[in-house]
Amino acid sequence: MSFSFVWLFILLLASGAPIAFALLAGPGLALVLDGEGGLLVVLASRLFNGIDSYPLMAVPFFILAGEAMAAGGVAASLVRLAKAFLARLRGGLAHVNIAASILFAGMSGSAIADASALGRVLTPTMKEAGYPGPFAAAVTAASSVIGPIIPPSGIMIIYAYVMNVSVAGLFAAGIVPGLLMGVSMMAVTAAIARRRGLPKHPPASRSEQWAAAKGAGPALVTPVILVGGIFSGYFTPTEAAAVAACYALFLAALGPTQLKTAGVATIFVRAAAQSGVVLFLIGASVAFSWMVTVSGLADSIADMLSARPGNLFLMLFALNVLLLIVGMFLDAGPAILILGPALGAAFVNLGVDPLHFAIVMCVNLTVGLSTPPIGLVLFATSSVSGETPERIAIEALPFLAAHLCVIGLITFAPPVALAIPRALGFA
Amino acid sequence: MNRSATTTPLYIARRLDALSTALGRFSRPLCEWGVNASAALLAIMLAIVMTQIASRTAAGLSFAWSEELSKTLMTWGALFAAPNAYRNAQQLRISMFVDALDHRSRRVISIAIALLIFWLSGALALHGAQMAADAMAVRASSLPVPAGVLYSPLPPVMILFMLISLESAARETAAAFAGAPEATN
Q1: Chain A contact for B127, CB < 8 A?
Q2: DSSP class of A149
Q3: Angstrom distance (rounded) from CA B73 to CA A299
Q4: Which residue ranges of chain A lie beneath pLDDT 50?
């Protein structure tokens, strides 16, 4: 079987075909051209069975939880909490934006959900307070990529499913890198705030801080349920996602927004529509990765890398560059599904810890979401803020540099990411 | 009607446009039904998983069928919702390279992609039906139905993809014959 499916896939991808169909049509056409048309039945079977997985059920449940939290005003309560404690700093609202992203990351697991929900609340507030619009949008975009790093994380569930690593272990590996990204962004913000003279806000009184903490309390229980439930072994990640979705729906129905039946139905319809996109893409990617395996492409790449191991340091550096470039053009989910099996096997053969490779790949691809030209987060933030993606991308450069430093740290100092999974017995 | 009237580009454009509209009359409600059905399945999945957690916690009971049923519902839900995303151009794609081309080239590429999806969906519908038929003799592992039933949504969903892609190809071709700058969904 030839590797022509790869070229056909790239051609279709560049032609603007939906990625899910490019993933199916590349192998499909190649099978027909190679006279193996009968194997199309395997493609159909892989498409179906690629979706038919219990661990993957966490994906629609987390999407549902994200939709419910967005509709239920959770983002606003988190912003109030962060504002009560951080707004008094110079450039305080930018710090609030980052802190709210870290808090929201513990609930949603999606950068787009984070950018849309927090961007809608914070970008106009920052603009009104005198922050430049593109800067406000850039902080939102750059901080939203923390969403899929701190558990729970949609892309980590996909990675764990494809690469057969522990979801809980991967979640644990994401905690320190996610927090480091937040802290490094705050350091960059502090420097920018001093240089540009960004505004300070009057400090909140104790009673205001208490009221904000009380308001956000019910939302802050979500990460406790999720992380506590998964790490204690009480829930599987799928069950934790279901509990989070139920809890978020409960908050939306009984919280300040008091959603009625029609509102709840809308949440389910929106979540189902989004899940359809993601899951169909996963099914198509599984069909494509079957072709990668049977054609011998995965083995060829693994052999090529193993035959010339060279310096592991340099290979990891090259991996980072490759993943960042891929992340600029492809969404993290499909990139993991396409590249994960080939690259993961090769690097694990070279002695890299599977969880270490996983976290490096997930962080790189997630950071790619906020880089031009394709960065989905840039477009989501642009649509929320009204600023152009180009201006947002330029303002986000210092934050991108901070993210790259964190990537360097977790790549070349594995204990940074692996300390918690090791302590919990996952690595 | 004379011969020239039936072969003019405008006439062809009108016929193709009518075809696209007729196909749209079928595909649009089916797509909307698919998303609503998918939302209902999501709610049922959630209820099943929560029931499983509650029964395990309260009575130490675990239902063997709950895992297979809920993941089957998810697969069906994903398949039911997917055509709507394609019809409304919500599926992820990289458009930066084609956006750099002139509108004629863009249109040719978009027609070619729609026809390719038509062929692929047809092939997958056919093989999906074969797969479901073959699995009718096998029993699902924990549900009291033949495994073929679980695969049964694949062929109709693929046929819906065929309808949508044909609708899209007809619309784009009609626009090309009419000389319109850009057809939209």
Answers
A1: yes
A2: T
A3: 35
A4: none
Partner residue opposite B67 with nearest CB, options A54, A245, A374: A54
- Interface A–B counts its CB contacts (< 8 A) at 182
- Per residue in A143-173, pLDDT tens? 989 988 988 888 888 888 888 888 889 999 9
A 10 A CB-CB count for A233 gives: 8
**Using an 8 Å Cβ cutoff, are A419 and A176 in contact?**
yes
Q: How many whole angstroms separate alpha carbon A317 and alpha carbon A315?
A: 5
Beta bridge pairs of residue B146: B139
DSSP chain B: --HHHHHSHHHHHHHHHHHHHHHHHHHHHHHHHHHHHHHHHHHHHHHHHHHHHHHHHHH----HHHHHHHHHHHHHHHHHHHHHHHHTT-S----HHHHTS-HHHHHHHHHHHHHHHHHHHHHHHHHHHHHHHHHTTSBPSSSSSBHHHHHTTHHHHHHHHHHHHHHHHHHHHHHHHHT-S----
Q: How far apart are CA A365 and CA A334, in angstroms?
A: 10
Indicate the DSSP class of residue A201.
Answer: -
Asked if residue A144 lies in contact with residue A115, where contact means CB atoms within 8 angstroms, the answer is yes
Distance CA B52, CA B69 (A): 12
Are the C-beta atoms of B68 and B140 separated by less than 8 Å? yes
CB pair distance less than 8 Å for B94 and A16: yes
How much is the pTM?
Answer: 0.83
Task: Provide the 8-state DSSP code for A234.
Answer: S
CA distance B114 to B165: 5
Helix (H) or strand (E) holding A79: helix A74-86
Peptide bond into B181 cis (omega under 30): no
Contacts of B82 in chain A (CB under 8 A): 20, 276-277, 279-280
Express each pLDDT in B65-100 by its tens digit.
888 999 999 999 999 999 999 999 888 777 778 888
User: What ipTM was reported for this prediction?
Assistant: 0.91
Exposed e or buried b per residue across A14-27, where buried means at least 16 C-beta atoms within 10 angstroms of its C-beta: bbbbbbbbbbbbbb
Across the interface, whether the CB atoms of A272 and B39 are under 8 A apart is answered: yes
Q: In the Cβ-directed half-sphere of A386, how many Cα atoms lie within 13 Å? A: 6
| Cα torsion A112, A113, A114, A120: sign | positive
Is the Cβ pair A277, B91 closer than 8 Å? yes
Dist. CA A287–CA A24, nearest whole Å: 7
C-beta separation of A22 from A286 below 8 A: no
Interface with B, mutate which of A15, A31, A249 (most B CBs under 10 A): A15
Q: Specify whether the CB–CB gap between A155 and A361 falls below 8 A.
A: no
Residue B6 has pLDDT above 70, yes or no: no
Distance (Å) from the alpha carbon of B147 to chain A's nearest alpha carbon? 12
Q: What is the Cα–Cα distance from A80 to A78, expressed in whole angstroms?
A: 5
B69 CB neighbours in chain A (<8 A) are none
Q: What's the DSSP call for residue A200?
A: -
d(CA B149, CA A5) in angstroms, rounded, equals 31
